[in-house]
Structure formats: C-alpha cells, structure tokens
Amino acid sequence: MSAFEHPFLVHALVAGTGIAAAGGLIGYFLVLRAQVFTGDVLGHVAFTGALAALAAGVDPRVGLFAATIAVALLLGVIGGRRRVDDVAIGSVLSWLLGLGAFFLTLYTTSRGATHGTAGVSVLFGSVFGLSGGQAWTAAATAAGICVAVLALARPLLFASLDESVAAARGVPVGALGLAFLVLTGACAAEAAQAVGSLLLLGLLAAPAGAAHRMTRRPCRALLLSVTLAVAEMWAGLALSYAVPVLPPSFAVLATATTVYGAAEAAARVRGDVPV
C-alpha cells in the first residue's frame, strides 16, 4: 500500500507545504529585521488563544488567529518603533503564559478528563490529525499569507535593510512594519497547527537562519528560506511516517535544526558568519 493512500499523510503534506512556505517567507524577514523573538512571543500567544477558544467552546483556530494578530499589532504599537522593542515583548510574555495555564485548567475542569490532552496538542501540534477540510483551509490561508508577503517584499526589504533611507525615499516604514507583524501573527497561527505553539519558532527561524548563512544575496536567501522550509517539512513528515515513534513536530524541527547547524558550521569554516 502506497504511503500516499493514507489520507492523514496527504492532508499533512497539503497543510504542511503551505505552512512551511509561508513560514519560510515570514522567517526570512524576521531574521533580517532582528525580530525573531517576536515569533517566540507569538508562539506563547497561540497557546493562550487556542486554549481560550477551547474553553469558550469555539474552534481553536478562531482563538489562534485572533490572539496572534491582536498581540502582534499590540507589540508593534507599544514598541513605539517600526521594530518591536524587546522590553515590550518581555512585559507581556509571562502574563500570557499564565493566562494560557488558566484557560487550560478552565477547559479541562469544565469538559472532563477526556479532554486532558488538549494542551499537549496545542503545544506540540497535531498535523497528522488534520481533516481534509482543515488541511485545504490551512493551505489556502498560507497561500494568502505568501501572496501578501510577496506583495510587500520589495519595500519591506528596503525598509529592513536601511530604514532611514527608506523613510527618506517615502517608503511608509511604520505601516509596513505593522502590516508585516499582522502577517507574522497569521503565520504563527498557521504554523501552530503543524508543529505546535511551543515549537513554531523553530519553523520560522531555522530555515531562514540557514538561508542567511548560505548567501548574503537577499532574493536568493528569500527563495532559499522557502525552499528549505518546505523541504524540511516534507523530510520531517516522511521521517515521522517511517518511524511512528517520532512525533511529526519533533521530526520537522529536528531536520530544520540539523540543516541550520550544518549551514552555521559551513559558514564558520568559510569565515563568513553574518552579524
């Protein structure tokens, strides 16, 4: 029996491919703009949002998108600059984690012990558990994120490389920064479905970090980031399918981390480590 005759694997590949492509695009700009920590915060926000939705009895995806996009905008506003201030991020992180624990307790106590694994699914993802409708919805949403990022790519790249010059040339760097954070929030919500809220930072940062180590040319690095993210998603899903004891989120992130480590080592051998 062919592996592709298993619907759960096909659904995971459909959703995972779109999510990885969006993560590669967003991750490239997160690394370039030194906003990787924002992705970590949004991962914790995704945990809280999904559990809040479950506690309220609605689809967890509603909570995922609402929470991550709202907090991404909040970070952009309270940061006071186009690039989010790390102090502003740290100020909300601990509170959000505690809030997530509260919603988890509320959900499990109100719905019974049979729902006790909900927190684990939100934290570590359940890409093999997606239905056909969920997979195609995730892929379509990811495609929309990719189109939006590509539409903003040129001015966003300019603003990321030299913000002052971009502003002097009339580029709306503030609005671009906020728009990028909204897309980052949506991407974080998407990625949480595949690798979980706790591990989504790896999907955003590792392929992009490896691409930055492999080339300094922006367009080539952007394409490489997407290619690596998709290839690592496929490899991780194939590895998890072949070795069922490996959770898909772990297999995907282990592959991405290995590639990043190899790229970092190669860059150091060449004496070409970006600051």
Notes on the protein architecture:
This protein has 275 residues and is mainly alpha-helical. The protein has eleven helices and no strands. It has helices at 7-32, 36-56, 60-79, 86-111, 118-124, 132-161, 163-168, 173-195, 200-214, 218-242, 248-270. The relative contact order is 0.18. The mean pLDDT is 84.
Number of E-type strands:
0
Poorly predicted residue ranges = none
The major sheet is characterized as: none
Classify the beta-strand content into a percent band: under 5%
Alpha carbon gap, first and last residue: 49 Å
Oligomeric form of this entry? single chain
Helix vs. strand class = mainly alpha
Shape: globular
- Can you give the mean pLDDT? 84
Helical coverage, percent range: over 70%
Number of helices: 11
* Rg computed from alpha carbons, rounded to a whole number of angstroms: 18 Å
Element-by-element helix/strand order = HHHHHHHHHHH
